[in-house]
Design brief:
single chain; mainly alpha; two-stranded antiparallel sheet; 2 strands; about 65% helix; about 5% strand
Length: about 240
C-alpha cells in the first residue's frame, strides 16, 4: 500500500485571528457602545460557522484588551478599554527590542517639543511656584556641571506633563518612565554631556526653561526646550545616520 503523507495541522491561530476581526466588525456595524450586551459564544459560533473553542479564544483576546466584560447573570457586555493599562503590560525595557526602545524615547522628545502651547494656556501661579521649588532643589544639590541626576530630570519634566492638563499625556509619561530611564542611562553613558558642544555654545538649564515659561512665548519655549534636549536629538540622529 502506498504510504501517504501526513496531513498538516490546521492553523487554528489564523482562524481565531479572522474571528477576532469579524467580532470587532460586528460591534462596529451594530453601533454597540460600552455597557451594551453582546451575543453568547454559541450564537457567535453558529453565525460564523466555527467551533465555540475558536470563538472563546477570540473573545478571550478581546477581554484581555479590556474590550469585553463578563459578569454573572449579565453575560458579556462591551467595555471601554483602558488604553494605558494595555500598554503598561508590555512596557518592560528588558522585553522590548532596542529599536522599539529607541522609538519610544524619541516619542518622549516629540511630546516635550509639542506641549509648549498647552503649558502657556494652562499654567497657574501655583504651578509656577511648584516648578520653581523643583528648580531650586536641583540647584541646591547641583554640581555646576551639565550632567544632572535622573530624579531631577524626572521631577522637572514630570511637572511639565502635569501642567499640560492632559491626563492621557500624564499617564503616558508615568507609563513610559521605565523606558525613558533605560534609554536615558544608555544615552548618557555614550554621550559626554559635560563635554558636549552645544550649537549655540550654551546649555539651556531647567532654570532657563522655567524663566522662559514665566515670561516667554510658546515659540521661545519650544526653541529653548530643543536646545535643552539637543544632546539627545544629536545622539539619536547620529545613530540613525550610522545605519
Amino acid at each position: 500500500m502506498k504510504k501517504l503523507k501526513n496531513l498538516k495541522p490546521v492553523d487554528t491561530g489564523s482562524l481565531v485571528d479572522k474571528v477576532e476581526v469579524r467580532l470587532l466588525s460586528f460591534f462596529k456595524e451594530n453601533e454597540l457602545k460600552p455597557g451594551d450586551a453582546i451575543p453568547k459564544e454559541l450564537e457567535f459560533a453558529e453565525s460564523l460557522g466555527v467551533s465555540r473553542t475558536v470563538v472563546r479564544e477570540a473573545l478571550l483576546r478581546l477581554r484581555t484588551l479590556g474590550l469585553i466584560d463578563s459578569k454573572k447573570h449579565r453575560g458579556m457586555t462591551l467595555k471601554r478599554p483602558d488604553i494605558i493599562n494595555n500598554f503598561a503590560r508590555m512596557m518592560d525595557p528588558t522585553l522590548l527590542g532596542e529599536d522599539t526602545l529607541k522609538q519610544l524615547f524619541e516619542f518622549r522628545l516629540i511630546l516635550e517639543m509639542g506641549m509648549a502651547d498647552f503649558l502657556f494656556e494652562h499654567k497657574t501661579q501655583k504651578d509656577m511656584d511648584e516648578l520653581e521649588e523643583i528648580v531650586e532643589a536641583e540647584e541646591a544639590t547641583g554640581t555646576g556641571k551639565i550632567r544632572f541626576t535622573l530624579d531631577k530630570e524626572v521631577a522637572f519634566h514630570g511637572k511639565l506633563y502635569q501642567m499640560s492638563h492632559n491626563i492621557t499625556l500624564q499617564k503616558f509619561q508615568n507609563l513610559l518612565l521605565p523606558v525613558f530611564n533605560y534609554v536615558y542611562l544608555n544615552d548618557t553613558k555614550n554621550t559626554d554631556l559635560d563635554g558636549y558642544h552645544f550649537s549655540d555654545g550654551q546649555f539651556v538649564s531647567h532654570r532657563m526653561l522655567f524663566e522662559n515659561l514665566k515670561v516667554g512665548t510658546p515659540e521661545t519655549f519650544r526653541n529653548a526646550m530643543r536646545r535643552h534636549l539637543e544632546p539627545h536629538f544629536d545622539h539619536t540622529f547620529k545613530r540613525d545616520g550610522n545605519k
